[in-house]
Specification:
The chain has 408 residues and is an alpha+beta fold. The chain is 31% helix and 27% strand. It has eleven helices and 17 strands. Helix 7 links the parallel strand 14 and strand 15.
């Protein structure tokens, strides 16, 4: 496409003097910068923009006047980068160049809430911005939900998973999975910190085939413009080999996978976020233990197969809860997650138990989401007393309590 055609296509977006612009999906493999982020800044001489160009290890900065913005964007898109996201005060514009050189455009409303996670009327929203749909109504009544990963955007992991077509449309039979993925991203987005200027390190324990790992990396790097170093860990050598091959295929240079056990895993790098999805039984406890030991700022855990307490639980006073096998199993699982959440509270985390996906799709639908912060000593003591009373009442010993006994 000609430079003038690109400028014409971008004219509406640039008239708003956008707050942020992200160029991603590198097309020119000779370019040393895997992405570029342009941010609006106010200076004494008037409005200007700062361009950050990222290599694997460094960021290079350049300041330009607002009048030079169209020229700067056209120098990068679409010859160097195949995707462009422009964030204005009221709208977001997403542009993509197809393999045949066709320009695809998607526009959506963007509403700035009064504070992080809150809309102007006080209603909670997912993350920093509430995205409202600009287009057709679903069923003639309800407005169609606008997900963080929008249709019409080329997301390689979603195409390979068979959730998106090659044109970026959701396959009708995979809408449930599409919603689950976006639900996960919303739960992450809602607790992401402001950019610190350094790489954001993530460990994904028990990553398996890493569907969500690849999608989260894509979202944070390509959509949020973050510097991310991400490691997936799993016991299976063939799975790790396949995941590393896929990361190379996508050119996800700071995403790599290692074979190893959660129990005993160590790293010399700082850890900002720990993810553990469906790690079996006490493997979840060792993942949470590592996260607390590393002082990770964010923990996201969806436990699985909580057998430990089911083998111990006994009570004369509450024997009704242990008499029937299915009730005993569910009560044991809920107690396990409640104890884990309280242990994290004792260790200084603001902790929530959230519905991850609808119960109709999986009974393993509880996410423990914990964010490091300042917890009052009174609340820590209360959390510990609740753990103690529950363990005494049902004759329990829980692994995470034992592992972190010196920190509680």
């Amino acid at each position: 496409m000609e430079k003038q055609e690109i400028e014409n296509a971008l004219s509406e977006a640039l008239r708003e003097l956008p707050e942020k612009i992200v160029c991603s999906s590198l097309r020119d493999q000779g370019c040393p910068y895997r992405k570029a982020v342009i941010s609006r800044v106010a200076r004494k001489g008037g409005l200007s923009y700062q361009i950050e160009r990222f290599t694997d290890k460094q960021a290079f900065h350049e300041n330009i006047g607002a009048d030079k913005l169209p020229e700067a964007i056209c120098a990068m898109f679409p010859d160097i980068y195949g995707q462009l996201h422009i964030f204005g005060a009221s709208k977001q514009w997403d542009y993509r160049i197809t393999k045949k050189g066709k320009l695809l455009t998607h526009v959506q409303n963007r509403t700035q809430p009064a504070g992080k996670g809150a809309a102007p009327d006080g209603k909670r929203v997912a993350g920093i911005y509430d995205f409202s749909y600009e287009g057709e109504l679903s069923g003639g009544h309800n407005r169609k939900k606008n997900y963080l990963l929008q249709e019409g955007t080329l997301v390689p992991p979603l195409v390979d998973l068979g959730i998106f077509s090659k044109e970026g449309r959701v396959i009708q039979s995979r809408y449930d999975k599409y919603r689950q993925i976006n639900r996960f991203l919303e739960l992450v987005e809602d607790v992401l910190p402001a950019s610190s200027g350094r790489p954001f390190h993530i460990i994904d324990f028990g990553c398996g085939k890493s569907y969500l790992t690849f999608i989260l990396y894509y979202y944070l790097v390509e959509c949020r413009g973050m510097q991310v170093h991400m490691t997936g860990l799993d016991l299976k050598a063939d799975v790790i080999r396949k995941c590393n091959e896929t990361a190379r295929k996508y050119h996800y240079d700071n995403l790599h996978f290692e074979q190893g056990d959660i129990n005993g895993y160590s790293t010399s790098e700082p850890v900002d976020m720990v993810i553990t999805l469906h790690a079996c039984d006490t493997a979840t406890d060792y993942a949470l233990y590592n996260a607390v030991t590393w002082d990770a700022s964010i923990i996201l855990s969806v436990p699985c197969c909580q057998h430990e307490l089911n083998a111990q639980i006994a009570s004369d006073e509450f024997s009704l809860l242990t008499r029937y096998g299915i009730v005993k199993e569910r009560v044991s699982a809920l107690m396990t997650d409640a104890i884990r959440a309280n242990v994290l509270e004792c260790c200084g985390y603001k902790t929530q138990l959230l519905e991850f996906i609808d119960m109709a799709h999986s009974p393993k639908n509880i996410m423990i989401r914990a964010v490091k912060g300042s917890r009052p000593e009174e609340k820590r003591q209360q959390a510990w007393q609740e753990i103690t009373r529950l363990q005494e009442a049902f004759h329990l010993k829980q692994t995470l309590v034992e592992l972190l006994s010196d920190k509680i």
